[in-house]
Structure formats: structure tokens, C-alpha cells
Amino acid sequence: MSLSKNSVAIITGAASGIGRALAVRFAQEEIAGISISDVNEKGLDETFQMIENSSVKVSKHLIDTSKLAEIERLKTEVLAKHGRATHLINNAGVGLIGTFEQISLEDFEWLMSINFWGVIYGCKVFLPVLREQESAHIVNISSVFGMVAPPEQTAYCSSKFAVRGFTESLRHELEDTNIRVSSVHPGGIKTNIARNSRIGENTPEEFKAQGVKFFDKVALTTPEQAAETIIKGIKTENPRILIGKDAHAINYVSRLFPKKYLKIIERLSGHRLDLRKKS
User: Fold this and answer.
1) In whole angstroms, what is the distance from residue 204 CA to residue 101 CA?
2) Which of 121, 156, 252, 261 is catalytic?
3) Which of 37, 73, 158, 238 has the most neighbouring CB atoms within 10 Å?
4) What's the CA gap between 231 and 178, in Å, rounded?
């Protein structure tokens, strides 16, 4: 069973982007409930307003996923509102611009606390709940930067490679249980993650402008298309969900040319992935 009338989906990072699109898409399914959460109250309210009149019971939760106590509070609130949880989508994530030398350890820790530890906390807290269900699914959002590692992305790549590794190991641990596990690897998605990215402590300001400009050129997939692909992946129990033609190409190139993939990807895309150099 993938999705049913008894399913309750929990979506973190639902104030915008893929998280919001997933909330809207889940609301089109004949399921019992949707729990949306984010640290961005304004964006969360906007997402709630988009789906509150659907036939699905919806709850919203102002949650900082980098805090274990808040994820535990989320579980308590979800069970009080919905009585169960069957689909956990760990989607909350942030970006950070700068080379390893330019970003501070505090910058690095901040990103990891959200992108990686938020996933760990979500899985640890909700796993006992998911085990009680007839069928359940964990979906962790990694990235194509969980498969390749361009410059100026040491922190982001660390988090997304970690999410991928954790998810694949967890999937193997749970393969004979009622819980399916999937890692999601979006390519360029038209969201505000680049614009909202934190700039490193010693990163030149122009790096962010260059990053946003580059991202706008390569982000070809809409959040709605991403959400549709994820829903399809859940229904087919796909353990690795690639989003966008670019994600499929990057996956192929990185496997075929593990030593040279960066130059090949740059040549195929027509763009340098190093912000220190002009495209």
C-alpha cells in the first residue's frame, strides 16, 4: 500500500518550494490528513490557506527542525490532531554560499543542524509511530549534490551526501518491515533556496548574486513537477527518486566518470560550477 484513505502525511519545510507543492499535491489525494510544518510562520500560513478547504484534514505546526525537542512536540501535536502518521517527508533545508575557507564553523554547524540533523531527528522520533502502521513510508530529500560535489558547496554537499548515506542504510535496515524508505535527488528546482541562502562569514557579497544568477539559469523544473515525481515515487515505492532531466544526467555522468564528472557536467551545461570563475 502506498497511499490510502488512512494515510497521514507529515511534511517539513512546507512554507515554500517543494514542501508547499507537496502539501498541495497530497491534498489532491484521498488521504486522511496532512501535517505541514516550517519555521517560517508567514509562508506556513500561506500554504495552509491553499489547502485548508480540501477534503483532507490539515494541521500546521511552527517547528524548527534543527531542535529535537520541537520535533518531539511535532509528534505529540500530530498524534493529537490526526491519531497516526504514515508518511514522513523530511524536506526542510537551507543553503550556504562560500568556500570552506570562507564559511565559519558556525555557518557549517547551522546548515548541518537543519539539513542533516533535522532528518535524523524526524526519523528517530517518528519511527516508532510508523512501525505501528499497517504501511508507512519515509522520504528524505537529498539533492543531486548528494551525488556530485561542486566547489563552494562543502557544507551543503556534506549534508546531502550524509542524508543519502543515512537513507540508504536505513532502507536496508527496514527492508523486511512495513516501512518503505526513499531518498530524493532533485536537480535544479525553481525555488528561492539560492536567494534565501546564507552567505558565509567571509564570503564576498558578489558570490551570492552570481549564485542566484547561475541557479536561475539551471533551475528548469517547477516545484509542482517535483511534487508530482515524488508522489509517483511514493506510489511505486521507488527507493531513489530523481527529479528532472538534469538529475538523471548528473546521476549517469557521476557513475560513469567518477573522476571527471565536474568538467563533463560543466561542458554539457555550458556553465561553470565554480563561482570564483566567470561563466
Assistant:
1) 12
2) 156
3) 37
4) 18
